[in-house]
Amino acid sequence: MNIEQLNADYGIDDQLKFVEGAGGFPFIKIDNDKASAVISVYAGQVLSFQPANDPNNLMFLSEAAYYQPGKAIKGGVPICWPWFGLDPDGLGRPAHGFVRNRFWNVVRTGVTADGDAIVTLGLIDTPETKAIWPHSFNLSLEITIGESLNLELVTRNTDTRPFFITQAFHTYFKVGHINQVAVLGLDGLDYIDKADNAAHKLQTGTVSIGAEVDRIYRKAQGKLVIDDAAQCRRICITSQGSNTAVVWNPWAKISAEMADLKDDDYQRLLCVETANADLDVVEIAPDSEFRLVANYRIEHDLSHVLKGTQPVTTG
Questions:
Q1: CATH (domain of 128)
Q2: Which residues are known to be catalytic?
Q3: Is residue 302 very low, low, confident or very high in pLDDT (cuts 50, 70, 90)?
Q4: Helix runs in the chain, H state only
Q5: Which of 12, 141, 282, 301 has most Cβ atoms within 10 angstroms of its Cβ?
């Protein structure tokens, strides 16, 4: 991809420009009155989002991340599609699908009447993708950079037969310290504990992190909140089109084993993922579409976040 041509076609003066990023990947840098952000055209992945009123980035991005074709970038918002987790058919295909490790197309850029920047990236089927997943599709990701970060992933079935997908925004949030984090909004939900032999459990109180956590929460809808006490903020997550939430932290052993994480990175990251996974499988008919939406907003006035909810430090 030619950076000069991308800027000529899609750049926006004083707000949005294309630059050569790590690994030579085209990055989109956005800086407006409300926030700054970095988006990688490779993987269609938001790598950074920092509101103008917050001294800390919303996103965790590993300093040891890979920037190589065929590799996933560790951090930001990787897109898992058309399946979440291991290959559902056991054919040895990559975990979390094939769109987080290839270049996307820039479809359009723009600015709203409110001054938010909008970037739309897309993918369509090719002979290469059909060799991996034998369906025709049109996938688009609309990213809105304003006071909040808004993501809309739209899957359109351009095939002659229905197909089924699972998917996720595999979002890595940057937290002050994992020992001072709680996730609110999951109390009373059933979950699959993948760190405990996929045992079925019931969440009681808020979620705190004191060991490896890898959980798939069923019937998770509406608003979730990450109480990031060390940074004196809460991260509000609202979603549409999702009945599943995934909470993941690798903890010390796995963090040390991952070449694209530093040994102590687990202390600074928490994934809370908006997903269709587990039993939440989406069927899309021919000439139909499905929309997965997530909005991330940092709140400093804590009295307005899940009013009346008090953190309970339970597992």
A1: 2.70.98.10
A2: 170, 273
A3: low
A4: 3-10, 127-132, 251-257
A5: 141
